[in-house]
Design goal:
449 residues; Trna Endonuclease, Chain: A, domain 1; 3 domains; 31% helix; disordered N terminus; DUF1822 family protein
C-alpha cells in the first residue's frame, strides 16, 4: 500500500510489534569488518569504517529476523568499495526491497546530536529513502537498530532549522528528530511504496568536469598519500562531490573512450586512498601485514636451487623458463610471492616478482614482474585482462585473444622508488555476461617499514 505522511490512522491499523533486541555479531562478521577497514589507508577512518561494517552486518541480520520476506542487496554498498568508503562516514546504497537505505554507526540516541554524511544528503547517487542509526556495541559484539528518519522528513528539518554542513562532510541533526521506534522502519519497508518518498534524479552531465578534477587530484598527490591527514582537510567539498559522483559512474565499466577516462580516475583514487603492499620487504625475507592478510605466500630466493622453486609451484618454474626465451631474465637477488585469486567462477595464480636496479645516471629504481597463470595444465579464458596503472592512468594491458590459448599473461614494469602501481584483473562472467574485476592494493617498493 502507499502511505501518506499525514495518514496516521492507516499506519496504525497495520502496526505490529517487531522485536528490537540487540543482534549478536558473529566472529566471521567481525573478521570481515576488520578486512574491510584494513583496506583503508587513513588510520583515523579505519575505526569508523570498522564500526560501519559491523552496523551493516547487524542491520542485515535484524531485517532478516524481523522481515525475512524482504530482499536485501549489498552489492552496491559504499562500505564495500574502498575508494568510496574512505570518503563517506556511513553505509550508502544498501537496498532493501525497492528502498535505498543509509546506515550510520553511532551511539545512543540520548546524545544530543546525530551526525549524518553530507554525501547522502546532497548527492543524488547516494541519497536514500531512510537514514538508519545503528548502535554498535563493539566490546559486547552486538548491534542495535536505534532509530531512523525519512529523506523527505530530513530535508524538511534541514530547511526549517537552517542547518549547515560541518567541515568534516557531515550534518549534525538533533537526536530528538530521529524516530526512535525502529520497528516502524520494518513496517515502512513492508507496506510503503518507494515512490511515496520522492528522491532527486541523478544529473546526466557528470562527465563534463572529469579532466579538471583529475588534474586537481593529481596536484594534491602528496597530501592525499598521508595516512594521518583527514581527507576533508585536503579536499574541498566540491572536489569530493565530483570524485564521488564520477566514481559511481566508473563502477559500471564500458568500452567507450569516456569510460577509459573514468577508469583512469578510479585508478588514481585507489592509488591515493588504499594502503599499499610493500614488496620491498620481500627482499628482506619479510611480508607486511597487508600481504599476510591477503594470503600472499613468499617464494624461495631465486639464488636457491631450481628444486626449491619447483617445490613452491611447478607452474611458475615452467613460466620462468619460457620467459627467458623472450629475453626476460630474473636476477638471482629478486624475490617473489604468489596468491590464488578467484574471479567469477574461475581461479588463477598471480605471481609478483621484484628487484631493485640502477637506471640511467645511477638512479635507483625497482622492477615489478607480474604473471597471471591458469591452474597447471590449463589455459586462460578468452577475454581475460591483466592491466597495470599508475597515478597518470593506464600503463600496460594484456588480454587473452580468441585465437591464442595462453597459459599465462605477464607484464614487466619499472618505476621510481616512490611510485605505486595498481594491478587489475578482469573477465566477463560466463553466465551473466557482466564484467567482473578484481583490483589489488597498490604495489610499492620500500626496503624498510
Amino acid at each position: 500500500m502507499s502511505y501518506s505522511p499525514n495518514n496516521s490512522t492507516e499506519f496504525s491499523l497495520d502496526f505490529t510489534t517487531v522485536p528490537t533486541e540487540a543482534i549478536a555479531l558473529l566472529p566471521e562478521q567481525i573478521e570481515s569488518a576488520v578486512k574491510i577497514s584494513s583496506a583503508i589507508q587513513n588510520i583515523d577512518q579505519q575505526w569508523l569504517i570498522y564500526l560501519n561494517s559491523l552496523a551493516l552486518f547487524g542491520f542485515v541480520e535484524w531485517v532478516n529476523e524481523c522481515a525475512p520476506e524482504l530482499s536485501i542487496n549489498q552489492a552496491k554498498c559504499s562500505i564495500l568499495n574502498p575508494t568510496i568508503a574512505n570518503l563517506i562516514p556511513g553505509v550508502c546504497n544498501l537496498e532493501v526491497g525497492d528502498f535505498k537505505v543509509c546506515l550510520v554507526a553511532q551511539g545512543s540516541l540520548d546524545d544530543r546530536e546525530i551526525s549524518l554524511p553530507r554525501a547522502a544528503i546532497e548527492l543524488p547517487e547516494f541519497i536514500p529513502h531512510f537514514y538508519v542509526i545503528v548502535d554498535v556495541k563493539e566490546e559486547y559484539e552486538q548491534a542495535i537498530v536505534k532509530g531512523f528518519i525519512r529523506y523527505d522528513k530530513l530535508t524538511q528539518l534541514i530547511a526549517e532549522l537552517n542547518l549547515q554542513p560541518n567541515l568534516d562532510w557531515t550534518y549534525s541533526i538533533p537526536s530528538s528528530c530521529i524516530e526512535n521506534q525502529a520497528e516502524r522502519l520494518i513496517l515502512y519497508l513492508r507496506c510503503l511504496t518507494a515512490t511515496a518518498i520522492s528522491l532527486p534524479e541523478i544529473p546526466g552531465d557528470r562527465l563534463e568536469n572529469l579532466a579538471s578534477i583529475q588534474a586537481e587530484i593529481s596536484s594534491l598527490l602528496n597530501s592525499l598519500e598521508s595516512p594521518n591527514i583527514p581527507l576533508w582537510e585536503v579536499l574541498t567539498w566540491q572536489q569530493l562531490a565530483s570524485i564521488l559522483t564520477l566514481e559511481v559512474a566508473a563502477i559500471d565499466e564500458t568500452e567507450n573512450e569516456e569510460e577509459s577516462a573514468l577508469t583512469n580516475l578510479d585508478s588514481l583514487l585507489q592509488i591515493l586512498t588504499r594502503p599499499a603492499l610493500n614488496v620491498g620487504l620481500w627482499l628482506q625475507d619479510k611480508m607486511d601485514e597487508l600481504a599476510q592478510n591477503l594470503s600472499w605466500i613468499l617464494m624461495p630466493a631465486f639464488a636457491t636451487s631450481p628444486a626449491a622453486l619447483r617445490s613452491t609451484t611447478e607452474e611458475f618454474e615452467v613460466i620462468v623458463s619460457d620467459l627467458s626465451n623472450f629475453g626476460i631474465e630474473i636476477p638471482s637477488h629478486a624475490r617473489g610471492a604468489y596468491q590464488k585469486i578467484k574471479l567469477s567462477d574461475r581461479q588463477f595464480n598471480l605471481y609478483a616478482v621484484t628487484w631493485p636496479f640502477l637506471a640511467e645516471n645511477n638512479v635507483p629504481e625497482w622492477m615489478l614482474l607480474l604473471i597471471l597463470g591458469a591452474n597447471y595444465g590449463n589455459t586462460l579464458p578468452t577475454g581475460l585482462k591483466l592491466r597495470v596503472s599508475d597515478s597518470t592512468g593506464l600503463l600496460v594491458q594484456r588480454k587473452v585473444g580468441p585465437n591464442s590459448p595462453d597459459n599465462y599473461l605477464y607484464i614487466q614494469i619499472a618505476g621510481a622508488w616512490d611510485e605505486r602501481f595498481l594491478v587489475t584483473v578482469s573477465l566477463r562472467d560466463r553466465e551473466t555476461g557482466q564484467n567482473v574485476s578484481l583490483t589489488l592494493p597498490p604495489f610499492t617498493f620500500r626496503m624498510q617499514q
